[in-house]
Amino acid sequence: MAIQASSEIVIDAPPDLIMEALADMDAVPSWSSVHKRVEVVDKHPDGLPHHVKVTISVTGIHDTELLEYNWGPDWMVWDADRTAQQHGQHGEYNLSRLGDEKTRVRFTITVEPWAPLPEFWAARARKKILYSALEGLRKRVMGREGSGPAR
């Protein structure tokens, strides 16, 4: 059974600054507690990450994934094939400009684990993933985590 999670926040920054933070794969472990290691395998012709190998840890489950990223001006999506812990995974960030310095960021992820997981575990995992994906990103963009892309 697939585990799905989705949420959104407003970040006081323009979409291009948020997209810059998302594209900086080397910095992801500094703002996402889920990500333990990140390695860009190759890039699209425009220089954005294409295939990225990541090691994650969520509520006691560890996995290494090869993610395929695709990018637009205000969105990014990734997909993973089978791993030791999952049949597959799909994630996305969608950004909507709300003004010169405000952006709505929507994060959605679907994970298909190999084995059924108890709902209490799935709820804890959703909470941790959503917090890392959105609040961690906000802190990164605002320059409070890692070296931050804040200008």
From TrEMBL:
<protein>
    <submittedName>
        <fullName>Cyclase</fullName>
    </submittedName>
</protein>
<dbReference type="InterPro" id="IPR019587">
    <property type="entry name" value="Polyketide_cyclase/dehydratase"/>
</dbReference>
<dbReference type="Pfam" id="PF10604">
    <property type="entry name" value="Polyketide_cyc2"/>
</dbReference>
<dbReference type="InterPro" id="IPR023393">
    <property type="entry name" value="START-like_dom_sf"/>
</dbReference>
